[in-house]
From TrEMBL:
Organism of provenance: Panicum virgatum (Blackwell switchgrass)
Membrane-traversing stretches: none
WD repeats: 304-345
Keywords: WD repeat
UniProt-recorded name of the protein: Uncharacterized protein
Residues in coiled coil: none
Gene3D superfamilies membership: YVTN repeat-like/Quinoprotein amine dehydrogenase
Pfam entry (one): WD40
Length: 488
């Protein structure tokens, strides 16, 4: 078996021009939606990993190479796509030194009963978590909901055939769409929005039957929807931003089902992120320089200079002072609005462009995803100087933190009650030589409160696209008590 045969993540990022890529031209077209070999029994749990199983279920003991040797070959041979030659190599000297080997998130589950897929090699925002148990993702021509609690999937929208709105609104494309190729996805506040290769917009409220709204955001032949962001205005009205390849950024008022702003830029807009207060927006696209603009007028507040290639990702820290941009020069730059003359950190990847960026909702961590194999999680409070690296094999369809980052606390109670609460919260107390009698059972007493972890209240979901090992990975945030001092 050759090196690029039968292993996960074995193909380099395609070198097609984004302006011409369609599903029929993609290297992914040979992935048929056959779930027969990916039953739930092939899922991987932490217990399986403790017994030596690979988190993706790759049987390395039956391969003609080891994981370490394959990783080294992958690092050497993966081909990063660049619009500006040598941008990745030239950016390396600017990267901020980091201390690797941290452990902020632990492996929780890998399910192969859902296959995460992508249609466009540069657009990787196809996974969205709404709680620590609920995640939405693209799987071929289906928008799926996966419950990490029940381990069940549900099809939300079938895009293979005809999709048409069931509500009457001004501007609604009543004819609907056929065989829609989805390039990007967003889910928030009970609203799910998909964007298509030809400017299609499809809106569905998760608490209503059917599709609420369909439209074409542009009739431009090069109008692919590159990214979507759902947000609330200060008035409480629900909106979303659509970034398009026709150089447009459109603000949709979802309550009135109409475009209320249409900003134009000098280059295709690949990604937009709105500041927490809704006043500023980060715009990145087919230009090394990004823009910080006034969200209401679209006027440029400041240029963002430093990247060496085109950018496809951005995200705001919830603190509203800092934000990050991801680029094909294999770096993520962190910026501070109080001094935009240069970035405050330059975070480097291993093999490819930074295609997706997410902050946790408490702003403690930033995650950046490469096109394949690696996700980097940085400790924000350390000045981005400490990092955990998630290492697997396969193209990354998207990453998403669940929005629930507030820790659940245990009461300051007797050891037996602490133990009971821990078991109810599905936590494993540390083993000690002491015992405590509780009801008629003899059980080990917990150690000192400083060593007791919090209940996991946040998940990181990762969609992995691969010919053999497509799946949805779930990691859980680690927390530790300084003291059991807060009531449930």
């Amino acid at each position: 078996m050759s090196l690029y045969d039968g292993l996960a993540g074995v193909y380099p990022e395609e070198e097609q021009d984004r302006h011409a890529v369609q599903m029929g031209d993609s290297d992914y077209e040979d992935d048929e939606p056959d779930q027969s070999t990916c039953e739930a029994t092939e899922d991987t749990t932490p217990m399986d990993v403790k017994k030596g199983k690979d988190i993706q279920g790759i049987p390395w003991d039956r391969m003609n190479t080891t994981r370490d040797r394959y990783r080294q070959a992958r690092l050497q041979q993966y081909a990063n796509f660049e619009n500006i030659p040598n941008s990745g190599r030239n950016s390396e000297k600017e990267c901020t030194p980091v201390e690797k080997g941290q452990l902020y998130y632990e492996f929780q589950h890998n399910t192969r009963s859902v296959k995460s897929t992508i249609l466009h090699f540069q657009l990787r925002n196809l996974v969205w978590a709404t709680t620590k148990h609920d995640v939405y993702l693209m799987s071929y021509y289906s928008v799926l909901h996966w419950s990490a609690l029940t381990r069940e999937k549900q099809e939300i929208i079938d895009l293979q055939g005809h999709v048409a709105p069931c509500e009457k609104h001004h501007g609604n494309f009543s004819e609907g769409f056929y065989h829609t190729q989805v390039s990007t996805l967003a889910v928030k506040n009970n609203l799910l929005v998909t964007g298509g290769f030809r400017g299609e917009i499809i809106c569905k409220f998760l608490d209503r039957r059917g599709i609420s709204y369909c439209c074409k955001s542009t009739n431009d032949d090069n109008g692919i929807t590159n990214s979507l962001e759902i947000f609330e205005k200060p008035s409480g009205s629900l909106h979303f931003l659509a970034s398009n390849n026709d150089c447009g950024l459109r603000d949709f008022d979802i309550e009135k089902f109409q475009i209320c702003n249409n900003f134009r830029f000098a280059w295709p807009v690949n990604h937009t992120s709105l500041s927490p207060d809704g006043k500023l927006a980060v715009i990145v696209g087919d230009n090394p320089d990004g823009l910080l603009v006034d969200a209401n007028s679209g006027k440029t507040v400041h240029d963002l200079r430093g990247h060496l290639d085109y950018s496809f990702a951005s995200a705001w820290n919830p603190d509203g002072r800092t934000f990050a941009t991801g680029n094909q020069d294999k770096t993520c730059r962190v910026w501070d609005i109080r001094n935009l003359s240069k970035s405050i950190a330059v975070l480097g990847g291993n093999i490819g462009a930074i295609r997706s960026i997410r902050y946790t909702s408490d702003g403690k961590f930033l995650a950046m995803a490469e096109p394949a194999d690696f996700i980097h999680i940085f400790d924000v409070d350390s000045g981005y100087s400490r990092e955990q690296e998630l290492d697997f094999f396969g193209e990354i369809a998207g990453i998403s933190f669940s929005p629930d980052t507030n820790p659940v606390r245990l009461v300051e109670a007797a050891p037996a009650l602490q133990y009971f609460l821990l078991t109810q919260l599905q936590l494993q107390p540390p083993a000690t030589s002491q015992t405590t009698v509780f009801f008629s059972h003899t059980i080990p007493a917990p150690a000192s409160s400083s060593s007791l972890p919090n209940r996991v209240t946040e998940s990181l979901f990762v969609g992995v696209h691969d010919r053999a090992y497509s799946s949805l990975l779930q990691f859980s945030r680690r927390r530790f008590y300084s003291y059991l001092d807060t009531a449930l």
